[in-house]
Amino acid sequence: MAPSIRVLLVDDHAVVREGYRRLIEKQVDIEVIGEAGDAVSAYKLFKVTKPDIVIVDISMPGRGGIDLVHQLRQLDGNARVLMFTMHANATFAQQAFRAGARGYVTKSSPPDVLVSAIRSVQAGRPALCAEINRAIATSHLLDENPATEALSPREFEILRMILDAKSTGEIADAFNLSPKTVANHHYAIKSKLGVQSDIELVFFCMRQGLVEPLASPGTV
User: Which residues of the chain have pLDDT under 50?
Assistant: First the structure.
């Protein structure tokens, strides 16, 4: 039986990609036809290889996975993208789906969940791992309507880079924007989230689970 699902893997860790490749290629109906370690090279490779499914990590150097999803969907409205990430957070999942993702699986999920998600997305069905299903259900149960929903996928990715202490210049280079445009995005993000300063922004994002608080001295 010839493989019928052609997959492009996008993750910035080569060792991690190798592990996923071995898992995926044990399936007779799935093959990995390309790998990329960042959003820019993934976008170029997508245009050349035209995969059936793109498996994308969220956290990568420079432009992140959510912005990549948005760019791929602008290029090809039929692009099928499956997020495979460590972020077990409803806000990340909601932003990914708003950008155009078809599935979201956490890296802590059992291996067979990723394989099942690939087949579901290929069949046109949304795919969510149990961990994210619970996170989204809890968010709805508590009637949470986070202000981050007001952010566009591009603004959300810029917010993530700000939280990662990237400079205006670094963000501008990653997105091919002018520093002034990045500064305007920065201001708009704070305005939409209802904060006045970067310190308030960090604390807001900590409450949303978008950034981890520093560990206390002596903790592991």
Answer: 213-220
